[in-house]
Amino acid sequence: MKAIPTLLNGLMWGASRIPLPLLYGVAAVLAWLAHDVVRYRRKMVDRNLASCLPELSEKERRRAARRFYRFLGDYFVETLRLHSMSEREMKERMRFENIDEVIANLRSGRDVSLYLGHYGNWEWVSSLPLHFPEDVVCGQIYHPLTNKTFDELFLGLRERFGAHCIPMARTLRQLVTWKRDGKTSIVGYIADQRPTSGRDRHWLRFLHHETDAITGAEEISRRLKAAVYYVDMVRLGRGRYCGRFIKICEDASVMPQPHSITDEYYHLLEASIRRDPPYWLWSHNRFKHIRKNR
Fold this sequence. Notes:
Elements (H helix, E strand, L loop, with lengths): L2 H14 L3 H18 L4 H11 L5 H24 L5 H7 E4 L1 H9 L4 E5 L20 E6 L5 H11 L5 E4 L3 H10 L4 E6 L10 E6 L2 E6 L1 H9 L2 E11 L2 E10 L10 H16 L19
Parallel strand pairs: 1-9, 2-5, 2-8, 3-4, 3-5
Antiparallel strand pairs: 6-7, 8-9
Helix pairs in contact: 2-4, 3-4
């Protein structure tokens, strides 16, 4: 059975060696198939755009939808390219701003929590270890996939540049272990996902929707007294991104209002989406839950 993941990994590695400009030709075909032929989640995308951005005209929303599918094709081949991309090319294509301030927090012994969304190419943020001192532990929270083959493949991709993937169920345990060992950590949370239970649910206003939000990242940040930053992803062009670190707070434990970090994160994420809508993941059913007993 091990031969299947090895063969698949080899095929993907071989395909990833194709120069990115040529891979974008494949991306254009994939985008056309998804948008016009297969119509992959077209109803979901159109419904999300209409309800989240009602201020746009129908023509503007159609254009945003088409651009979203083009980006989805680009995201696919850019993620494939991770298999063989060199450290030098990765640093040229994915850069970060305001890193010095984040490093200063880490040097003072304070852990750092990074809030991200499904915006821009979030997979490339796994290259963070290339920009930080070697003694800093860089981690990212992930949901293990049910398919073991694809789980192994994505773990390999996300850990290529030295980041540690932490299963969501073990997050606090792992971070406390690093802290006890005297290690400072910087950990990324993609926090715009739909909660799976009511235990960590908080309701807020986001893109014209009353939205339930995950609060686990905030609870962990408060317990660790971590500095919290939002990563504002800006697409500079095809295959070129900039992650801007925007400080939410210096010490999560002293934030007086419950859920204030989560609220600010969603406020910043909405600003990113409104600035350039096509780069958010419009195909997922983010607004499925409806609040009851209000």
